[in-house]
Specification:
The chain has 330 residues and is mainly alpha-helical. It is built from 14 helices and 5 strands. The strands form 2 sheets. Strands 1-4-5 form a 3-stranded antiparallel beta sheet, with no helix packed on it. The termini are far apart.
Length: 330
């Protein structure tokens, strides 16, 4: 146009959400279409243009059938980067957060959760944990067909916190446990899952899930104890004997595992010995410290020292015990 005639040449736009899958638009560079328009007033109604393709790659076949004519030789390039604790670009994570809308696909959703990038998971830590605990048990506390897979997903999240990249999220996890976690009936299922892994350890050919579980004992017990305390508070301390029996059974399984002398379980034994104190430190919030100490002594006395690694792990467990808050009680 003439230099003194300042009119609008055209416009571009970008949709922030992918409506088909519900995620935000992908990070990175994007070539946007330029549509001809010399009347800014026409843009007052966004619905007139929001139905049009906004990326050049999507607009090839529909240049002449749109409310606005596209300028085929021009485009504008932008680069986007999402920063959000409520919106995600990960389809697998989104399917977990929206699991109630498609409960028939829970199994597949859980199998994909462990593939989600850790940085994306910790951003949505509270929402992810809420979803997983809702799947873990029924309203009356019974296990579901997905409880085992949910437990694996929980352990994978706890394991993330041991990574130096994510260890600063531990206060976030602790704040969730004490301030937001409300699943008062999951403690029984969590105990059952840990006990099952300890029992099957001598027969399994893949110890990795068991090792990950034992490495995460501190956080598993944090949730067990918080759940138990919530239940006791709500019911006036009901099922105290049942809870003690469940813990006794769990430590019986630990003791039996440590008494075995098999090559294929030594990594699991070492990991259990190195991390059991984190669980005991939580147990004394709900059980008599002398009882917890008794369980620990019984475990250590039953260790079959077959290798130097197991012997070293036993000594480490003993050192952890005598330097813990448990030993502050005369």
């Amino acid at each position: 146009r003439e230099k003194n005639e300042r009119k609008m040449f055209g416009f571009s736009f970008v949709r922030l959400m992918d409506d088909e899958v519900g995620t935000t638009h992908r990070d990175g560079p994007h070539e946007l279409c330029i549509y001809k328009c010399d009347d800014r007033a026409r843009l007052a109604n966004p619905m007139e243009y929001l139905t049009m393709p906004f990326l050049t790659r999507d607009a090839v076949d529909c240049i002449y059938s749109l409310p606005y004519q596209r300028s085929p030789k021009e485009f504008i390039e932008i680069e986007t980067l999402l920063c959000s604790t409520k919106l995600t670009q990960n389809v697998d994570l989104l399917s977990l957060l929206r699991w109630r809308s498609a409960p028939e696909g829970i199994g597949e959703t859980l199998s994909r959760v462990t593939r989600v990038d850790g940085a994306e998971t910790v951003k949505f830590l509270q929402d992810v944990l809420d979803a997983l605990f809702a799947m873990f048990s029924t309203d009356d506390g019974n296990s579901t067909v997905h409880s085992g897979h949910v437990f694996q997903a929980l352990v994978s999240i706890f394991s993330l916190l041991e990574d130096s990249k994510f260890e600063h999220f531990k206060p976030v996890m602790d704040a969730y446990i004490t301030g937001h976690f409300a699943a008062a009936l999951v403690y029984k299922g969590l105990i059952s899952c840990v006990k099952h892994l300890a029992n099957v350890c001598p027969q399994t050919e893949k110890p990795e899930p068991i090792v990950r579980c034992f490495k995460s004992l501190e956080y598993i017990f944090k949730f067990i104890i918080q759940s138990r305390l919530l239940f006791a508070r709500a019911t006036g301390g009901q099922n105290e004997d049942s809870f003690r029996d469940d813990i006794n059974g769990l430590f019986d399984s630990f003791t039996k595992l440590l008494g075995e002398c098999l090559d294929n379980i030594q990594t699991s034994q070492v990991t259990l010995l190195e991390n059991i104190q984190g669980g005991c430190d939580q147990l004394i919030r709900a059980l008599d410290p002398a009882k917890v100490a008794g369980h620990l002594c019984e475990m250590l006395n039953c260790v079959t020292v077959g290798t130097r690694e197991v012997a070293r792990a036993k000594l480490k467990a003993m050192r952890n015990a005598v330097t813990s808050s448990l030993f502050d009680d005369d």
